[in-house]
Amino acid sequence: MNRKITLGVIVGNRAFFADSLVGEGRKKILNRLHGWNIDTVVLEETDTKLGAVETWSDAQKCADLFRRNRDIIDGIVVTLPNFGDEKGVADTIRLSELNVPVLVHAFPDDVSELTSAGRRDAFCGKISVCNNLYQYGIPYTITESHTVDPDSDEFKAEMTKFLGLCNTVRGMRRARLGAVGARPNAFKTVRYSEKLLEAAGIDVNTLDMSEVLGAAEKLADDDGRVKAKLDEVHAYAQSDSVPPRSMVLIAKLGIVLSDWMSENDIDATALQCWESLQKNYGVNACTIMSMMSDKLMPSACEVDIAGTVSMYALQLASGTPAALVDWNNNYQDDPNKCIYFHCGNWAKSLVSEIKIVSAEVLGSTLGSENTWGAVDGRTSAGPLTYARVDTDDRLGRIRTYVGEGVFTDDYLSTMSGTKAVVEVPGLQKLMRYVCRNGFAHHCAMVQANVADVVAEAFETYLDWDVYYHEG
Length: 471
Fold this sequence. Notes:
Number of strands: 18
Strand content: 15-25%
């Protein structure tokens, strides 16, 4: 993860089960979490019986502890070493007033130890806890298996997913995005509702392109910051064929954008990447966008703020850079394969080799001398998660789709820009859904398997409409 996570922990208890199960279970869970460098907020063993929650008084104490730490708690783990008290758990979360992901975990029984000293009945207790959370209107997450041993690899995988979920929900609810310039006039596909995003906690800040170009032109070529940025760009990608003047313009553009993002605490951006930049400044923004995305500050093309939201969600879930792509070409007659493409702004870590080039397609109308700054590279074989977020103004809803596939090493002829061949089970069905429901031609991608995390964040905790494509 790209940030440390703090979890509130509720240990459930029901008095007529053996105390030893709760004491041992509490210790086991906390040891596992601390072993993964996760901070915890949990009742001390002296605060309540065994440091667990059962009674109304216990719930009040635990909720008060959580409220005092509300600024650092990213999620809550409810763990049931025995049946637990469903009211105590639900009351704690309600009283805490925390609005964070909640994972409900139950310890497994051993059929050879179903005695008064050894039986847990957490299998049954988990159903009761979930029932009460549902009645209270508290969103929650459950493990794939109904009971899971905390010492198992399965529990580690569940916690990895939950940490990604906590990171995604927290990040999305307080995201600050930058829209730089006006969307290209031809691209009504990337229109979006700032008000729907604002209602979800996503703040959009705007910057006129004239301000960017004006500030960049005021920077002297021999300015120390320009020289330092120029060195950074040279080190980032192979640039031997790029005209020196174009490299200087790219460096200045990077400084201006970086300054504005820092001053306004911007997490991610969407840029007017054509035609104003090329006509009035003389380069493409792709290289700088690639560099920002590689630093986990995702940057989308064509002022596609909804695309930026999609990228940011995938990045938060995976802890790795995301990219914006076009669903661009069929792949021969294979119904489950297609080509992802964009002029060239994918992060360096997403491609095997990276080179700064002139944008071939834009250069055909804007002049190749004005489109230096695109990036050339291909994503190699590996896992794929794709996602798209769009605002539907007609319905007043945020709608999304998400799914998984793979990047392949299939043959791809020379095409300048960033590209990949991907295989998505049931691709034709997905494309029909995309077209039938009016989604944009862009989507976001990440080289990881995090579709479950992203879908749950969108649907369970952000209350967005989700189509989870499974082929």
